[in-house]
From TrEMBL:
Keywords: Cytoplasmic vesicle, Protein transport, Transport. This is SEC24 homolog D, COPII coat complex component. GO terms for cellular component: COPII vesicle coat; cytosol; endoplasmic reticulum exit site; endoplasmic reticulum membrane. GO terms for biological process: COPII-coated vesicle cargo loading; intracellular protein transport. It is found in: Cytoplasm, Cytosol; Cytoplasmic vesicle, COPII-coated vesicle membrane; Endoplasmic reticulum membrane. It comes from Electrophorus voltai. Residues 689-772 form the Sec23/Sec24 beta-sandwich domain. Residues 1-38, 54-180, 201-280 are annotated as: Disordered. Residues 905-976 form the Gelsolin-like domain.
Length: 1035
């Protein structure tokens, strides 16, 4: 097995010797090329040698049912993109001080420092070397940049520029109600302040522009404004408390000429874009027969019919049209990536995947690249041979698989075989695909409960034990199976471990204690992992006894690594894969391997060493990860901390074994019990595959280079996952190593080998064909903002383990400006530089990017707990596109004015404080929490209807649930919450927030269009800043 170490997270960045006992040679990793990525030394992007160096996995397969008829076409659907023009933005647009008493203005540190003109200004986009991800960006004087790109408002008529089709017809922005009275550049033949055809809400048809009066070159330099253009000498010094490179706060500090408040409706609205897509494509059947077709948004409800390409539920791309050459890719810097959720749930109205069995010989695969039989294979020579769509190798068709071709050259049995006509299907795997050539045993779930003082006292142990009595009846089972094949086992621990024999023949469970935690072993084999059905009486007896057994414990010290060790040893002994459910509360400080100490040091925030806060302690945890992956042992961690627990280290094994981490700080049964139980229920019940190996193959000219997720990489191509469940997604980035052809397009095949919950070895295959174009405009038209932000979040959160967080933020901002500047230069009609022009498919990208910059992980605030930041970082790493979309742009729903008679969820409003009202009530959901925010002047009848109390003052502050009352408003509110919960894969915590209460801070940090509570710009300010950067790039 070839070993090249460019991979993954730092602790695992070295290639390891092979593991896993798989006989296959998953092939030689291709040569590397880095461009524009975190941490990579800034290197010129040189196209790689064209050689194909793909290899194979070994593989399995049968006789399929008949899918629907399919038509393959190579036509590319354009989804009507066109340039979007937005009025220039005032540099200072933040609303005046909020009525909420924002925290003091913080430096806006998410922005890069001023860039020396020599570095940033070049006339040739193609010559730019921006976003080279140099670890040390420009060190200009540590002063706030100054600013304010005076951005005149100029609407120029759209002029065709080799893109006749690009007529602006999309939602054009209404003119701003006020514009800063200054202009950077003199009006270009346009009378100032003229806006013909420029009515609010109507498309800007042309002719004139809105040109603020020409003024001096921009704003006078003021502290607090944006900009990087002015020489350092003109910059004001940093405001007190600003750290190096910080941006001064914003609006409120600016001393510019008085401005009227800018109409926030004038900048692109995410809620509007979401609604438009829902109107345009909602409720439709999306058929996947076209190459390069852009699917509806993740927020749109639609059904999928597989006609040759994988459903967007399984694979979603950042763009559906790849640039033909690496030069074009480098030029635009739009990441080429796909987010794969290989086991995604399929709605009931869509066809589940067919299972194909190719018999003893296993699935049919290309001899050279080992790609699996799929619709991209071209049958020739009367059906006796086929040409591989990935490597072009011509293969013999096995005798038993031969079929005649029709006059179109298609096999006569094409529509009877899923692997010839569908994008996604499964093969049954043969023994070649099993560890040690033996069929796997069904997996096991081991419940490992910390019974130290805190967990006993809080009532948690009793809560868990009571729940398991009923929950274990709902272990997942194979479709059609009578019972679950999954075995269960139980361990309790504090600083020693207790194993339980729950064999069905026993009258009473038996406890076996292991106190030598340094040499962990499993003291019993027979009777530890059992079938719940058979051992129900003994298990219930045990669950009844556990809380009592430890009720008078004084033990507060715990171990942790030995617990994982015990779990993986138990699975090894039973020769099965499985999952550990660990319920743990404190920093493991007892003398034992993996003992941790408090290393939280918030003084490191915003220093070069900040990254160490997020790096896991290595040593035994690294070793455990390898053992777990090797055994197919997934670790799920339920944490109940009252203080710092070094989450970065404790969650390290889960984060590399396809596990999930849940965190309930200061857990109280009454407040958090239900939320925890619903998380536990969903986790136990969800569909999952074990001992998984994923391989992504591509057609010639490009290849997968980077992988992000709850995964483990032992080499550069094989993605190992101890387990993968229906929510876990892997984000894969591609780079060119040759030229792509417009005729052939770009083909991707993702193959996931895994063990099902009943112990069957399966191979799931997803195929996707993308368009290729030598026109960048095609790429921009086919972009998917939600997928882009998923990619950027994961790559940034990965990069922050190796680079200062500040550098990562700067790279993100630069790349944003670069992508948009390249569009402007190459795809948009010529127009005044002062005008902000965004690609239609990316017009709300800036708001998402700004939200990402303000997330706990990236914001760099010492006020946030280190564990919270690490937790946020890790939970995003395994997210799919739906989850990251709503996390970065939460849904804010007014519920005070809802139509009780209607079944629909009320339309969301923009995620900004400005949309709230004192007399209103709003729900905010981000996939993790649902807040119910109540304005302080919320009418008593609303409060009465929702809570059955006469006024807001009667509401307790610690409410975590909503009573179900017998009135229309209460029922409607519950139905909305229920609809939201059903859309989300994980359970959401309910938080009730009164305006101006202390807890309002929690809510307000999710208002992503506003200035961040812990730093970071408002949407408007960010857009201004990016616009200014774009203008510099274009100068
Ligand atoms: Zn091939």
């Amino acid at each position: 097995m070839s070993q090249q170490g460019y991979v993954a997270t730092p602790p695992y960045s070295q290639a390891q010797p092979g593991m896993g006992g798989y006989p296959t040679g998953f092939g030689a990793p291709p040569p590397q090329s880095h461009y524009g990525h975190y941490g990579a030394p800034a290197q010129p992007f040189a196209p790689q040698a064209a050689g194909m160096l793909k290899t194979a996995a070994s593989g399995p397969s049968g006789m399929p049912p008949s899918p629907v008829s399919v038509q393959h076409g190579s036509s590319i659907q354009q989804n009507g993109a066109h340039p979007q023009k937005y009025p220039p933005l005032p540099a200072d647009s933040a609303p005046a001080m909020s009525p909420y008493g924002q925290p003091p203005q913080r430096p806006y540190h998410s922005m890069p420092q001023a860039t020396p003109p020599t570095q940033q200004i070049t006339n040739q986009m193609s010559a730019m070397n921006i976003g080279g991800y140099a670890p040390n960006p420009i060190q200009s004087p540590q002063s706030p940049t100054s600013s304010a790109a005076p951005q005149p408002f100029q609407m120029s008529p759209p002029t065709p520029m080799g893109h006749a089709a690009l007529s602006p017809q999309g939602p054009q922005l209404p003119p701003l109600s006020a514009c800063p009275p200054m202009a950077a550049s003199p009006p270009v033949g346009v009378p100032p302040m003229v806006m013909p055809n420029c009515q609010p809400g109507s498309p800007l048809m042309g002719g004139g522009g809105f040109q603020p009066q020409a003024g001096p070159q921009g704003f006078p330099q003021q502290p607090g404004s944006y900009g990087g253009q002015v020489p350092g000498s003109q910059m004001a010094g940093p405001p007190a408390g600003a750290f190096p490179g910080a941006f001064p706060g914003g609006a409120a500090q600016m001393a510019g000429p008085p401005q009227k408040k800018l109409d926030p409706d004038s900048i692109p609205s995410t809620t509007q874009v979401i609604e438009d897509d829902q109107v345009k494509r909602g409720g439709q059947l999306y058929t996947t027969n076209l190459r390069g077709q852009v699917p509806p948004f993740v927020t749109t409800s639609f059904s999928v019919q597989d006609q040759g390409n994988a459903s967007p539920r399984f694979m979603r791309c950042t763009t559906y049209s790849f640039p033909c050459t690496s030069d074009l890719a480098k030029q635009c810097q739009v990441p080429l990536a796909t987010i794969i959720k290989p086991l995604a749930s399929v709605p009931k109205n869509e066809t589940p995947l067919y299972i194909v069995n190719h018999g003893e010989a296993g699935p049919i695969r290309c001899n050279r690249c080992k790609a699996y039989m799929c619709p991209f294979m071209l049958f020739i020579d009367g059906g006796r041979r086929y040409q591989c769509g990935f490597c072009n190798c011509v293969n013999e068709v096995p005798v038993q698989y031969f079929q005649h071709l029709d006059h179109m050259g298609r096999r006569l049995d094409m529509y009877e075989r899923p692997e010839l006509s569908l994008g996604s299907y499964e093969f049954t795997a043969t023994l070649d695909y099993c560890k040690n050539n033996k069929p796997p045993n069904p997996p096991a779930y081991i419940f490992m409960i910390d019974v130290s003082y805190n967990n006993i006292k809080s009532g948690l142990v009793k809560l868990i034990c009571d729940e398991l009595k009923t929950l274990l009846d709902q272990l997942p089972k194979e479709e059609g199976a009578e019972g679950s094949a999954i075995k269960v086992g139980f361990v309790t621990y504090n600083k020693i471990l207790h194993f339980y024999n729950v064999k069905s023949a026993l009258a009473q469970p038996q406890m076996m204690v292991v106190s030598d935690v340094a040499e962990m072993f499993v003291p019993l084999l027979d009777g530890f992992l059992v079938n719940f059905e058979e051992s129900r009486a003994v298990i219930n007896n045990l669950l009844e006894q556990i809380p009592d057994m430890f009720s008078d414990t004084n033990e507060s010290e715990t171990v942790f690594a030995p617990v994982i060790q015990a779990g993986v040893e138990a699975l090894k002994a039973a020769e099965c894969s499985g999952k550990l459910f660990i319920f743990h509360s404190s920093l493991p400080m007892a003398e034992a391997p993996g003992k941790l100490k408090n290393r939280d040091d918030r003084k490191l925030v915003n220093t070069e060493k900040e990254k160490t806060l997020f790096q896991a302690q290595r040593g035994i945890y690294e070793q455990l990860t390898k053992e777990c992956v090797n055994q197919g042992c997934c670790v799920d961690l339920f944490l109940f901390p009252n203080q710092y627990v070094d989450l970065a280290t404790m969650a390290d094994v889960p984060a590399h074994t396809g596990g999930s981490v849940y965190k309930y700080s200061n857990f109280q049964v009454q407040v958090d019990g239900q939320h925890f139980l619903s998380d536990l229920r969903q986790d136990v019940k969800k569909s999952i595959g074990f001992d998984a190996m994923m391989r992504v193959r591509t057609s010639t000219g490009f290849r997968a280079t980077d992988f992000y997720g709850a995964i483990y990489m032992n080499n550069t191509t094989d993605v190992e996952m101890a387990a993968v469940d229906c929510e876990k997604a892997v984000t894969v980035e591609f780079k060119h190593d040759d030229t792509l052809s417009e005729d052939v397009g770009a083909l991707i095949q993702c193959a996931l080998l895994y063990t099902s919950i009943s112990g069957q070895r399966r191979l799931r295959v997803h195929n996707l064909s993308l368009a290729c174009s030598s026109q960048l405009s095609d790429l921009y038209k086919s972009c998917e903002t939600d997928a882009l932000i998923n990619f950027f979040a994961k790559s940034a959160y990965h990069a922050m383990l190796a680079q200062p967080v500040k550098v990562v933020r700067e790279i993100l901002v630069k790349q944003t400006a670069h992508m948009l500047a390249c569009y402007r230069k190459n795809c948009a009609s010529p127009s005044a530089a002062s005008q902000l022009i965004l690609p239609d498919a990316m017009k709300v990208f800036p708001v998402y990017m700004n939200s990402l910059l303000k997330t706990p992980a990236l914001v760099g605030s010492a006020e946030l707990s280190t564990d919270d930041r690490a937790f946020h970082r890790l939970s995003v790493m395994a997210m799919g596109v739906e989850e990251s979309q709503v996390l970065f742009y939460p849904r804010l729903i007014p519920v005070h004015s809802m139509d009780v008679a209607s079944e629909a969820v009320p339309s969301a409003v923009r995620c900004s404080e400005e949309r709230l009202s004192d007399t209103g009530a709003f729900l905010l959901e981000n996939g993790q929490c649902i807040f119910l925010w109540l304005g302080q002047a919320c009418p008593p009848d609303i409060i009465q209807n929702f809570f059955n109390v006469p006024s807001l003052a009667h509401l307790g502050t610690d409410m975590s649930s909503l009573p179900e009352l017998d009135n229309g408003h209460s029922k409607k509110l519950h139905s909305i919450i229920c609809a939201i919960s059903q859309q989300r894969s994980s359970s959401t915590k309910m938080v009730i927030v009164k305006q101006k209460d202390r807890s309002e801070m929690l809510f307000r940090q999710h208002l992503v269009e506003d200035k961040g509570l812990y730093g970071g710009a408002s949407y408007m300010d960010f857009l201004c800043y990016v616009h200014r950067e774009i203008r510099q790039l274009l100068t």
